[in-house]
Amino acid sequence: MPGKTRYWLLALLGLFLLFVLMDSLNAFNSDPWMEVPHGNHSHYVPKDCDPPLPVSDAPTQRPKPGETVDCQGNTVPLTAR
């Protein structure tokens, strides 16, 4: 019996670590932009730009509800994309 308990605990630990990894990769974030910590402030970078927007060109103010960041680094309404 102790062997089965150990395997269940290891399986639960593995699932927890998988959840933490997916969360750190923003798998659960549905926003069209992502927050990138940068020293004592954060930049808000769009997710789907080609070529990607450099972090230093992204705005440092969080987009308000109904807004997003475009590929030029401007905060715009969601319908303007």
Tell me, rounded to a whole number, the average pLDDT: 90
Strands ordered across the widest β-sheet: 1-2
What fraction, in percent, of the residue positions are helical? 25-40%
User: Could you tell me the number of beta strands?
Assistant: 4
Number of helices: 1
Compute the CA-based radius of gyration: 19 Å
Give the N-to-C terminal Cα separation. 58 Å
Give me the secondary-structure category: alpha+beta
Order of helices and strands: HEEEE
Name the overall outline: elongated
Low-confidence stretches: none
Strand content: 15-25%
Biggest sheet layout: 2 strands, antiparallel
Topology of helices and strands:
Elements: H1 2-24, E1 33-38, E2 41-46, E3 67-69, E4 75-77
Short recap of the structure:
A hairpin with a 5-residue loop joins strand 3 (67-69) and strand 4 (75-77). The protein has 81 residues and is of the alpha+beta class. The relative contact order is 0.13.
How does this model look, in words?
The protein has 81 residues and is an alpha+beta fold. It contains one helix and four strands. The strands form two sheets. The chain has a two-stranded antiparallel ribbon with strand order 1-2. Strands 3-4 form a two-stranded antiparallel ribbon. The longest helix is centred in the first third of the chain and has 23 residues, at 2-24. It is elongated.
Provide key terms for this protein.
81 residues, two-stranded antiparallel sheet, 28% helix
